[in-house]
Fold:
Amino acid sequence: MNINEVKDRISKPTPPFFRQLRTIGLALAGVGAAILAAPVSLPAVLVTAAGYLVTGGAVLSAVSQATVKGE
Structure:
């Protein structure tokens, strides 16, 4: 799979279920980023969990965006 195929795949319509998953992933990543950027000192467990939220949300969004309807 070359880069042009990836570009074409990402530009195609995403099924409704995966659009919802993409939105959830973006929200999770946003919450995690907000926790990481907080100007106060937070417990290490919360900072670690926020890192996982950012990573998981980003992966969920990327995979959901690349999903297309079957032909």
